[in-house]
């Protein structure tokens, strides 16, 4: 996580421990998008071009309305804040390295001398 945060110059904003309400804020946003966009428009991954077009139109519509939490219109606020936003790095973050391991006939894979049981997919080794 720290390599990702450093690469992109961001600050993580985690849910508070033992506070379901903080997690609920994110879940409410997902529920809002589902109920206000995905279900009424019957969006499907079978038509990603159409879904993306409808999603862009929906974003333009909802971001042009007064937002009750920030007491501002998000599209207008973005234009005010845009000069303050930094440019993302052009290169993809290199976080960890992929290590190819073989799974033996007992379904074990080894990291160093330690066998791990039940390996079914590639694992990402952390630096």
Task: Tell me what the structure shows.
This protein is mainly alpha-helical. Helices cover 41% and strands 9% of the residues. The chain contains four helices and four strands, in the order ααααββββ. It has helices at residues 2-8, 20-41, 48-62, 74-81, and strands at 97-98, 108-111, 114-117, 124-125. The protein has a two-stranded antiparallel sheet with strand order 1-4. The protein has a two-stranded antiparallel sheet with strand order 2-3. A hairpin with a 2-residue loop joins strand 2 and strand 3 (114-117). The longest helix has 22 residues, at 20-41. It is extended, with a radius of gyration of 22 Å. It starts with a helix and ends with a strand. The mean pLDDT is 81.
Helix content estimate: 40-55%
The share of residues in extended strands comes to 5-15%
Unreliably modeled segments:
none
In DSSP terms (H or I, runs of 4 or more residues), the helix count works out at: 4
End-to-end separation in angstroms reads: 12 Å
